[in-house]
Amino acid sequence: MKLKRSHPLPSVRMSRARGFSLIEVLVSMFIVSMGILALAGLLQSAARYSKMSELRSTATLLANDIGDHIRANFDGATKKAYDLTLAYPATAASDKRTLAGDLCNTGADCASTELAYVDMALWTARLLATLPSGTPYIKYNDNALSGGTQSGTVDVWVAWKDPNTTKSGTSTERPAGECPAGLNVSTDTSVRCVYLQVGL
Length: 200
What we know:
By secondary structure, the chain is of the alpha+beta class. It is built from 3 helices and 4 strands. The chain has 2 domains: 15-48; 57-199, no CATH class. The protein has helices at 12-72, 74-78, 112-130; strands at residues 84-85, 135-142, 152-161, 191-199. The chain has a 4-stranded antiparallel beta sheet, covered by helices on one side. The N and C termini lie far apart (115 Å).
């Protein structure tokens, strides 16, 4: 008596079909993995540029803030009381500005130069506290504008260290001329600068 097989053995063709399906799954997993890695890189870049934008916005606000103080104190600006040409990086405001806190609290009238020193003391303290390695560079230009409508301008630079960039000298992320020569940051491409010209 012959016994009948209830389940036929799988054919060679079916085995091959199963093998191809496994390869297709592996290829699909590889493609999905590459997509996830690309998405992770995109999120990292987005976080980086978001931080860069935040620091630049803070520097712009600080430059505009001291610009308003300079415009309000015309006499102090023309006497170069706001000039501060520190080499990068600044650790604290130099000269009289470090002791300017009590200059205008004596009860007597505050001179324009003293007011400028107080402005600079408060402003540089905020700059150092809010920007990484924040450094001011302010310089008055006498008769910088022709035509006689203005007596000069004040150049304001705010510099800071971008923590997302490298220090490699081959990096070209910072445009040429973004920072003034007096800051001495030509070899440190991680430093960024914001420039504001204040007309008097």
